[in-house]
Amino acid sequence: MKIKDSKIYFEDVAAEELAKTYGTPLYVYEANRIRDNYRRLQKAFQTRWPQFKIYYAVKSNTNPAIIRLLMEEGAGCDCASANEIRLATKLGAKGEEILFSGNNLNEEDFAEGAKAKALFNLDDLSLLDRLLKHGKPEVLSFRVNPAIGKSNVHDSDVMAGKQAKFGIPWEKAEEAYAKAVDAGIKRFGVHMMTGSCVTEPDYFAEITTKLLDCVGPIAKSLNIKFEFIDIGGGFGIPYTPDEKPLDIEKTATLVTKVFKEKVAQYQLGEPQLVVEPGRYLVGDAGFVIGRVHAIKESYKKFVGTDIGMNILARPVLYGAYHGIFVDKKSEARNPKSEIVTITGQACENADAWAKDRELPKIEVGDLIVVENAGAYGYVMSYPYNGRLRAAEVLVDQGKHKLIRRRETFEDWLGLTI
Ligand SMILES: Cc1ncc(COP(=O)(O)O)c(C=O)c1O
After folding, report:
1. Atom of ligand 1 nearest to the CA of 376
2. How far apart, in whole angstroms, are the C-alpha atoms of residue 345 and residue 269?
3. Is 347 a catalytic residue?
4. Which of 55, 69, 126, 209 has its CA at 20 to 30 Å from residue 392's CA atom?
5. How deeply is 386 buried, as exposed, middle or buried, from its count of CB atoms within 10 A (0-12, 13-18, 19+)?
6. Which domains does the chain have, with CATH numbers?
């Protein structure tokens, strides 16, 4: 996104043109930004450890055009459910190009994962017998809880440690692999996912050390080989003005340094180093364009837009901050700023989702643009109060195309009998 003469552009396409063509609220993604994010991450790690693989965490943005774009770059798909596996398969991902890191799986999940020959990251030892009913997998991985976690988003996004529902406590991991060996499984991987939106490089080195200190002794005592070591996603992006971007070169340097040391120490050979990011790849490539429909002077000043908690859930769900920009209607606009609270259209007081922000003076009919909405944006939206889901548009090399149409009244009603 860029701002020129107070107007907002996505790869040279004006926000106003997109709003006129597709209506608002509207999710917009910049394809080049997604490619840049992927290539930066891939290069940083691969130059230091060539056996490196990115599986895109599909859950962060399930639009097929986005998944396809990342698959064209070389990404595999990290899926969380039977439907995400179906989606990845439909887009051409096969077998070991699909990681299945779901939790609390049901029979449909097992069946679809087995049918796709996906790489299962089992979240608990108790799931092994259920998976075996669908046949013996070629390769098996367990999700280990290394008893350490972190999130710059919200406490609920800390995905490992004693309060986390995910993974096998690392002290019990050997028992899980021993059971898999007894079942005749011969090829192994290991997985962890400890947190979200972390921007401190040291943290990734710390968790990698922890995971390898767990895996090393298991490889020795059970005499098994780990073909891949998956350190999860969680690579952060800055949301607030004072947050700094994650230094990915430094992260890759620190992680591959401990990776090489530990792999040598435990004689693990040359396992593939796997990451499964979502937010880092698509988060800052996505925006929501909304229209201002009403301005209200109450005890404070409210700017009513069509971007509500139902369109972008993160602010209300996590107390998350998203930067907001105003696309000025005309150059004659008053440039003076004022303190306002941005609301959506839901009948919920929580829907005042950006409180007391200093923004250029806004008028009814103006467009606002919310940044960092590419990950956990559209996928978490829901139709509430009859305010239906937005459309999605991809801007690529100066061209724009609709990649998901707006939800209609017929779609909304279509599920009822
Ligand atoms: C198992 C797993 N892998 C990867 C991710 C992607 O995380 P992020 O978008 O923070 O990189 C998640 C997010 O919840 C996850 O649960």
Report:
1. 9
2. 57
3. yes
4. 55
5. exposed
6. 2-29+284-414 (2.40.37.10), 31-282 (3.20.20.10)
Rg (CA), the chain: 23
**Cα–ligand 1 centroid distance for 275 (angstroms):** 10
Which carries the bigger pLDDT value, residue 35 or residue 4? 35
Q: How far is residue 370 CA from its own chain's centroid?
A: 17
Residue 215 to residues 135, 225, 226, Cα–Cα distance (Å): 25, 10, 8
And the tokens for 182? 């007894």
Q: How do 337-343 and 119-122 pair as beta strands?
A: unpaired
- In this structure, the strands spanning 286-297 and 272-275 are unpaired
Q: Ligand 1: which residue has its CA nearest to atom 1?
A: 101
pLDDT digits (tens, 9 = 90+) for 23-80: 999 999 999 999 999 999 999 999 999 999 999 999 999 999 999 999 999 999 999 9
Structure tokens at 160: 């490992």
Pocket lined around ligand 1, Cβ cut-off 6 Å: 57, 60, 78, 101, 193, 196-197, 232-235, 276-280, 375
Paired tokens of 88: 């990845």
Q: For residue 280, which atom of ligand 1 is closest to its CA? A: 11
Which is the closest atom of ligand 1 to the Cα of 279? 9
Q: Rounded to 5 degrees, what are φ and ψ at 401?
A: -145, 150
Q: How far apart are the first and last CA of the chain?
A: 43
Instruction: Please tell me the predicted confidence (pLDDT) of residue 263.
Output: 98
Question: What is the tens place of the pLDDT at every residue in 214-240?
Answer: 999 999 999 999 999 999 999 999 999
